Amino acid sequence: MQKLFTKILIPVVFNGNTGWSVDKAIQLANKFDCDILLLHVQPPPVAIPFLGNAFFSAPFTNSMETTPEKKMKDLELQSKPMLKEGLLMTSAVLEGYWEPVLKDVIISEHIDLALIPQNYKRVSAALIYRININKLSQQTNCPILTITPNLNANHFQNIVVPVHNLLPVKKLAIATYLSLESSGCIYLMGKNTHPKNKMGESLLMKAYQLLNDFGTLNIHCALRENDDTATGTLFYAKDVNANLIVVNPGPESRLRGWWGKLKGNYLCRESDIPVLTVAF
Fold first, then answer.
1. Is 241 left (phi over 0), alpha (psi -120 to 50) or beta?
2. Which string of DSSP letters, residue by residue, matches 97-166?
């Protein structure tokens, strides 16, 4: 099967997630033979009035301590030896705000897998809460993987793929690629809103037949009744001890309720299982 990933982007924010998230990026890079780009985004300097005309700014205060550029180079030098021979690791420090900078870098650097660390705690200031992963995946056409400390690139044994309103060819192709690389199992989950409506069952069968065309795969199918899409996916993933959930952006990844819709309460932010968001 065609190689899908060649260059991984991992954001670095110099907090408690940095060490393990870079380790997971290296693990994925070694598994799929990818180069890595470490990215840190510095917010624009903010002038603080002081004694009338004088002010302090971010560059001034940073000069009194280790700069982000120095930290990134140190991290790069420390991490490179863990990469397989022949793979590259580079780093960049850019000024701006995370979401627009990520979008520009993903497109300009031809990133084909971006990683976003999932926090231990639900902290509103965390990077995952500052980025609209659904929007980012749609605008860049790049798969976005939320990674957790328990992610193991060598053990994508149980991969859950919801199949609902259309036949998600790209999502199925990526799930198949990951499954073949890890000799894993794909769990297709369909949904029937009404017992007499067979659309969900029909899509599930089409997805099953399409996966069979890729080769010999271990595939399980389940049809759930009257279940909220994202919440049902999470419950099903926990039932089958999933290592990964692969979803499309949009309603299928949004948790139930008006508050979830208003605040962008997506599956990738709430799941303890890594979630890969794949644009159509």
1. left
2. -HHHHHHHHHHHTT-SEEEEEPPSS--TTSHHHHS-HHHHHHHH---EEEE-TT--TT---EEEEEE-SS
Q: Which residues pair with 54 in a beta bridge?
A: 50
pLDDT of 263 reads 54
226 pLDDT more than 90:
no
CA R_g for the chain: 20
Question: Quick one: pLDDT at residue 47?
Answer: 56
Degrees, nearest 5: CA angle 151-126-141? 65
Distance CA 137, CA 94 (A): 21
In the numeric block, the tokens 């009257």 are attached to: 226
**Higher-confidence residue: 265 or 92?**
92
Q: Cα 260 to chain center, whole Å?
A: 19
C-alpha angle 158-162-163 in degrees, rounded to nearest 5:
130
Q: Could you tell me the pTM of the whole model?
A: 0.88
**Alpha carbon separation from 257 to 66, 123, 254, 265 (Å, rounded):** 45, 21, 9, 9
